[in-house]
Amino acid sequence: MEDFIFRGILWAALKVALFYYFCRGGAWYMAWKEIEHTADVGFEVETQSLNDLFIEAAFALYGVCYGDISVLRGIRHGSHETIMIDGIDLEELMVSWLNELIYIWESKNVLFIPLHVNVKRGSWHLEADGLFAVYRQIQLPIKAATYGGLVIRGEPRPFLRIFLDV
After folding, report:
1. Which of 39, 54, 121, 130 could form a disulfide with 114 if both were Cys (CB 3.0 to 4.6 A apart)?
2. What gap in Å lies between CA 105 and CA 136, rounded to an integer?
3. Rounded to whole angstroms, how far apart are CA atoms 96 and 114?
4. What pTM was estimated for this model as a whole?
5. Which residues pair with 82 in a beta bridge?
6. Domains of the chain with bracketed CATH
7. Helix boundaries (H) for the chain
């Protein structure tokens, strides 16, 4: 009796499988599929001022990409540049800042080393003075800074937690 029930269940399962196979043009159909997930990497920064938060976020980004960046803090030669970025709020300004640094690396093969950053609250405008420096020892390419999991505050102690798409 048990063998008869087992064969009935097996036959029903086979009919369902064949139905889905032929109704989908000969391709097996599933309601879900596995997709690859690229891991993100993140960092946290805490500083005394909002301006320093943006400078340290740049060095944290470079630390993730390049490993040991102690030599970067000592760079004082290179092409002097100014970067200006606008945002609608603090979150957008930070993500735009980091993505601009990634873009500069990808398009010009140089790093922007921020020497001075001025963030205007309310209008959320950033002006950064710094140097373009050649630094080619990339260890982990970053695609973009993301809003997923972003935590940023300007006061009382500026703090940033951000994740980068690798």
Report:
1. 130
2. 9
3. 15
4. 0.75
5. 129
6. 1-35 (no CATH), 40-165 (3.55.10.10)
7. 2-23, 50-66, 70-73, 90-108
Structure token digits, residue 39: 């891991």
CA distance 105 to 166: 15
Query: From residue 166, how far is each of 66, 67, 104, 119 by CA, in Å?
Result: 13, 15, 17, 27
Helix (H/G/I), strand (E/B), else coil: 23 = helix
Q: Any idea which residue has 């029903």 for tokens?
A: 12
Answer whether 103's CB lies under 8 Å from 83's CB.
Answer: no
Characterize 44-61 residue by residue with b for buried, 16 or more Cβ atoms within 10 angstroms of its Cβ, and e for exposed: ebebeebbebbbbbbbbb
* Residue carrying structure tokens 């020497």: 115
Model confidence over 82-139: pLDDT tens digits? 999 999 999 999 999 999 999 999 999 889 999 999 999 999 999 999 999 887 777 8
How many CB atoms are closer than 10 A to CB 142? Answer: 21
Q: Which H or E run includes 1?
A: none
The conformational region for residue 122 under phi > 0 = left, psi -120 to 50 = alpha, else beta, is left
**6, 140, 146 from 163: Cα distances, Å:** 52, 14, 6
